[in-house]
Amino acid sequence: MRGWITPRHLSRLGAVVCVVAIIAGCSTKRVFMTDLPSLKTSYVDDFAAPGGYLPQEAQAFIEFCVDLDNQDDRNKQASPGPAAQVYGARIDPELWSIAYDSRDAVAKDYIEYRNRGAQGGQPASDDDLAYWKKLYEKIKDTAADDRIPINTADDIRRNPDLNGFGPWQNAWTLYRGVGPNAGRYAIAIRGTVFSNAPSAIEDAIFQPLSGREFLSHAVSFSQTRDASLHGGFAHASFTLLLDRRYGILQTLSDQHVPAGSVLYIVGHSQGAAMATLVHAFLFNALYQAETGPGDPLGLRGARYRLKSYAFAQPKPGNYPFAAEFSRYTQRPDNALVINNHIDPVPQVPLTLQSTGDLESDFVGHTFTARLLRFVSGAGKGLRSSLAWVFDYFTRESAEKYGNFYHGRSLQPLGKDQRGSSWNFVPAGRVILVYGTRGPPNDLFYQHHATTYRELIAAQLATAR
Question: Could you tell me the residue ranges of all domains in the chain?
Fold first, then answer.
């Protein structure tokens, strides 16, 4: 991601922001009260798995997160021992088995791509490896820069700096329930890999973007006009869901996940925010497939029953997004957020509320309402300008990393998505665990998935 924003870009950004902010400050354009979409109650229930916090679910799903998020810690252990056991995932094979692991798929495909190049061959068709050339070249360059030898697919599979996909190097696993969990599936999404620049950049590019018709008329994380999302999480979730080779929708189809299956979506840290957005996307896509005039993503009849567990959730969107999300998750209680009260990550991105976040609550032509809209205009214009500029660079840096599921239905891609609200809040039902003093030399001890494992076992062993 070197050269992502240059001094020339910054000077252009400053000029654009100043002009737009001045114009916006003079605007008294009328806004309307946030209009939460009407929902058919039957679909809220149909698309929800059995709700409520269940200790056995939380304890199983945090282990999925340990498997994904602590891969680098396991690599540092020279031999099996107490420390290695801490970072190992404790997944009961009599309850869950891995149906798909994007890390395995990326590793296998890279080796095939490299071998073809060594033999003088090239990917030949749209359904082959050609669309993912930029990803594979990124893996090759990262390995060369960091002096990581790649002899077999396992060298990639084991290394979180190499085994992600898409512009933000995400990874995920699909679990199939066995025994008493037969008929259930779980999507687990990896959190931030701090040693991987694209993964860390995803957290930092939090420009507010509209969640409605995100990059395409066929993709929505919300139906509310005022709903804004964390830009990095939204872009990464788009690719995670829709990548035609490694994405969630393609894999659910390839794995023949039956209609009506219980589908859990879980994640820790960055993966927790993305799990919330994936939950929101799937509900909206399933709902539109059943009630709308079209079915652009082929989900009519799928009727998955959703439930999410988000551990250490950074704030995925603003207040209107969270309010709409609660419309279809609050009553069935199928969106659980478990945060450590002294973990700093659930407090970011910082909430920067302004009068612009209140103006839709004060409608009318009174002097006070007009004054509120006028005062809020400059702040909204500045934030919207920043979102517009930074999202341009975000989309530019994300080009040519792959191809998309039902790609023709997703046109047009690259739509302007800017929002203006930085009133970020958690989304889902928040349950707190309470951290205790940890090692003084570990700045993020309270945030680790392994810490959450211990706090959940100690404090949430019974239902809440």
Answer: 7-459
